[in-house]
From TrEMBL:
Its EC number is 2.4.2.1. Keywords: Glycosyltransferase, Transferase. CDD domains: PNP-EcPNPII_like. It comes from Pedobacter endophyticus. This is Purine nucleoside phosphorylase. It is an enzyme of class 2 (transferase).
Length: 271
């Protein structure tokens, strides 16, 4: 893995003229609109980057974008990777290790998720303050390279409290309804049954999704402060569960995405 990371980092440095990003961003399903705010200097297709996994989803662009946002140099993944696509956890999190190798000092992650909390409605935003990992594998399993971070990384503060406080303050300033809560990660790709939604709520979840946690685990191992935010695109309320419709979910994400972009652009300026 170390050789693969080094090879990929060196390739990217050559192609981007040694661009040195300060912040890494992972953009989730339907949330690529933030890219429009970036003053782009370089773009690389995942398919052209050595060792880089390729997103298999038709609504994920699969580009690594380098540029300036809110006065900060950033690298953004326009299209993330998921366990349900058939990748290993090590492959899913490989881009985070590469971004760390490129020099990022903070990681921002976004996703589309389903609400488990009756007070959190479709189209709302939820800042992740903690998570419950129900995915069947761990990106750190089998890794022994000490240079990547501790074998048993601490997870007492997986999402930085001071960054969360800044984001909530920004949301209040711009009058955007933004909750904070616990994200439950499952493997997918199927949606949950009524009984499963009830269970996930009972164990403390406020939202459920199929991503984010692997990247957050690796970022914490690497010593990177993390901020994560969900756009709640559907509602997993057992008493009134509606059939899944992907087009509707993507439409909700697109409608809510400008609110997320407003918060993130302001937040990046303050990190």
């Amino acid at each position: 893995m170390l050789r693969a990371i080094e090879e990929t980092v060196e390739y990217i440095k050559r192609k981007t003229e040694n661009f040195k990003p300060e912040i890494g961003i992972v953009l989730g399903t339907g949330l690529g609109g933030l890219v429009k705010e970036i003053q782009i200097e370089h773009q690389l297709m995942y398919s052209n980057i050595p060792n880089f996994p390729i997103s298999t989803l038709e609504f994920h662009s699969g580009k690594l974008i380098f540029g300036t946002l809110s006065g900060k140099k950033i690298v953004a993944m326009q299209g993330r990777l998921h366990y349900y696509e058939g990748y290993t956890m090590q492959q899913i999190t490989f881009p985070v290790r590469v971004m760390k190798g490129l020099g990022i000092q903070n990681l921002i992650v976004s996703n589309a998720a389903g609400s488990l909390n009756p007070e959190f409605k479709r189209g709302d935003l939820m800042i992740i303050e903690d998570h419950i990992n129900l995915q069947p594998d761990n990106p750190l399993r089998g890794l022994i390279e000490s240079s990547l971070g501790p074998r048993f990384p601490d997870m007492s503060e997986p999402y930085k409290r001071d960054i969360i406080a800044k984001a909530l303050s920004i949301a209040n300033e711009v009058a955007i309804n933004c909750h904070k809560g616990v994200y439950v990660a499952v493997s997918g790709p199927n949606l949950e049954t009524k009984a499963e939604y009830k269970y996930l709520r009972l164990i403390g979840g406020d939202a459920v999704g199929m991503s984010t946690v692997p990247e957050v685990i690796v970022a914490n191992q690497a010593g990177l402060p993390v901020f994560a935010i969900s756009v709640l695109t559907d509602e997993g309320f057992p008493e009134d569960l509606q059939p899944f419709n992907l087009d509707e979910i993507l439409a909700v994400a697109a409608k809510a995405e400008p609110k997320m972009t407003e918060i993130l652009t302001r937040l990046i300026a303050e990190i």
